[in-house]
Design goal:
single chain, 584 residues, 2 domains
Length: 584
């Protein structure tokens, strides 16, 4: 397959040569990259174990799941009342999945600076390196695209009753693949030219989170029938001006022009031409405008893993911000205060932590709309909204937000640089529970509480002030649930465990028990929501219960702490001599 793709690349040699690319260097770099690519495990359909070793699913299974995914997507092609709409929504899903694959698998390939050590001493220019990386990504993604589009190629032949439609569909798949690759590369290379390395990495992370969130939101909205796909498939897209700017419409217009000439017009033909020309124009733009300076930007990016500090920055006197003031008020004990501060400082600076936890904030409202507006409720969307507004389903909104708290507690103890956690064991801290207590208070005060306040403001605006007592009680019980999760399942110090460390089987039982307890509390609260006075009274024992569990959590000893570093050995069993800290 690699040899076939390398021969196909040579069809673009005239265009690449005119753009200033060294063809001999390009083909040799591409050949070596494909050879190395076959030896590198991929993120897609892979499994990770603790300790960094990976076990990759067999190629047969990858092929099976890719074709199966393409089969389910190709069901959209059978809605042929308006063929342009059916193919448009097919390529919307097709391109979203392909874009997510590119972002997850090949961001590191495009931005990999390791081969700079080999290529920089050679006379290889920026354009040749940039184009070699884009074509490298194209070859790999094209394999997945052809497998994913194979069921669609077969089905479109039956839908349009012509084998010629399958040949046209192959061209459409190639268009979609090239447009996805150029779209991702245009964004990445444009960011590289406009922002520094640290901000660029942050923006790429936010871009990945936005794509995954949008895909999940679309899935749940369709499942809840908030978005009726059957109505969309019968919509005449070209009556809307915004449809002319959608790449899937350009791709679908090719089939409409060639296979359905009676229903096509001048605009459809122009859109089909735009779909064919845009990939070539985009490649020319990348080579001529964005590729110059590519090596220099990669070199800057490779040295921007941390925030650079200058001598002037070091001389600045540290000033307390609002988080330090919150730490002094919420966690007055010295060790607990230190746990609070180290948690929020590392959490705010660690990109992996933000990428794994921030999407959970978007999942909560999405899942709430799914459970309240879906589940077989009858009537139109407006009737369902009115029905929800006159009920007490807002109680579950705060309880659903425990997804955020659980995600925070799961990820706060994990780090790729977990070996730095030796400092916890070197310090003479008698009770590590104080560090854990400070960690938990930091997560609640700086992440969970602000999120609940935003949800509460939205709830009061929709359901009225009578929801305030329910929101307070739900927040206290959810925070109590978070302490139970921290007590029984998350027993690591902040950023002290390797990523995806394997947990014992007993954790599953603890998770089920605590989750069942939360379900009982939430359902009981929902049943009692109409008794306003009773809810106000229940807030007092809920606050006392939270205080007692936090007090017990603060008493955790070294026997309860998990240590994942073999070089450190087991956690200390003897009580170290405590240091006397000065008060803040």
């Amino acid at each position: 397959m690699d040899k076939i793709f390398l021969r196909l690349v040579r069809f673009f040699d005239p265009v690449l040569e005119k753009a200033g690319v060294n063809l001999d260097q390009l083909h040799e770099i591409l050949r070596v990259k494909l050879l190395m690519d076959n030896r590198r495990p991929r993120n897609l359909f892979s499994k990770r174990r603790s300790g960094g070793t990976g076990k990759v699913t067999s190629p047969i299974m990858i092929t099976f799941f890719t074709v199966l995914m393409g089969f389910f997507i190709s069901m959209l092609l059978w809605f042929n009342d308006i063929p342009l709409a059916g193919q448009t929504f097919y390529f919307v899903v097709f391109m979203v999945i392909l874009t997510l694959t590119i972002v997850s698998d090949f961001t590191t390939v495009l931005l990999d600076s390791r081969d700079q050590f080999i290529l920089l001493p050679r006379p290889v220019d920026d354009r040749t390196i940039a184009v070699s990386r884009i074509l490298h990504i194209t070859v790999y993604v094209l394999r997945l695209a052809l497998l994913q589009g194979l069921p669609g190629m077969i089905m479109v032949g039956f839908v349009d009753k012509s084998p010629f439609a399958s040949i046209i569909f192959l061209v459409q798949i190639l268009e979609a693949t090239f447009l996805c690759i150029l779209f991702v590369n245009l964004i990445y290379l444009a960011f590289m030219r406009s922002v520094n390395g640290q901000k660029f990495k942050d923006m790429i992370g936010y871009f990945q989170m936005a794509l995954s969130t949008i895909m999940m939101a679309s899935y749940y909205m369709i499942q809840a029938r908030v978005i009726d796909i059957r109505v969309l498939l019968k919509t005449s897209l070209l009556v809307h001006w915004w449809a002319y700017f959608l790449p899937p419409v350009w791709i679908a217009a090719l089939n409409q022009t060639l296979m359905h000439p009676l229903s096509q017009n001048l605009y459809t033909s122009l859109l089909a031409v735009v779909g064919l020309v845009t990939p070539l124009a985009g490649l020319w733009f990348v080579i001529k405008v964005l590729a110059p300076g590519f090596n220099r930007k990669l070199a800057i990016l490779a040295t921007s893993d941390g925030n650079p500090t200058t001598s002037s920055d070091v001389k600045k006197v540290y000033k307390q911000d609002f988080r330090d003031k919150i730490a002094n008020f919420i966690a007055p004990r010295p060790v607990e205060n230190a746990g609070f501060r180290i948690t929020y400082k590392l959490a705010s600076r660690t990109r992996e932590f933000k990428m794994k936890t921030y999407p959970a904030f978007a999942y909560v409202p999405i899942m709430f709309l799914y459970f309240t507006l879906g589940r077989g409720r009858g009537g139109t969307l407006m009737e369902r909204l009115i029905q929800v507004q006159h009920g007490s389903s807002y109680v579950f909104l705060v309880y659903l937000s425990t997804i955020v708290l659980t995600s925070l507690l799961t990820q706060i103890s994990m780090s790729e640089k977990y070996k730095s956690a030796w400092v916890y064991y070197a310090l003479p801290v008698e009770k590590p529970g104080e560090i854990l207590s400070g960690m938990y208070k930091a997560l609640v005060m700086l992440y969970f509480l602000p999120f609940c306040v935003i949800l509460s403001i939205a709830t009061v605006c929709v359901w009225g002030p009578q929801a305030i007592n329910d929101l307070i009680l739900a927040f206290l019980l959810s925070t109590f649930y978070g302490v139970l999760i921290a007590l029984f399942t998350m027993k690591g110090l902040p950023f002290s465990k390797p990523v995806l460390a394997k947990q014992g089987g007993g954790r599953a039982i603890s998770n089920l028990v605590t989750l069942g307890l939360l379900g009982i509390l939430g359902f009981g609260h929902y049943l009692l929501a109409k008794y306003e006075t009773l809810i106000w009274i229940a807030i007092i024992p809920a606050a006392i219960l939270l205080w007692v569990t936090l007090h017990y959590y603060r008493k955790q000893t070294w026997d309860n702490i998990e240590n994942y570093d073999e070089d450190m050995g087991p956690a200390p069993q003897k009580k170290p001599v405590p240091l006397k800290f000065k008060s803040q």
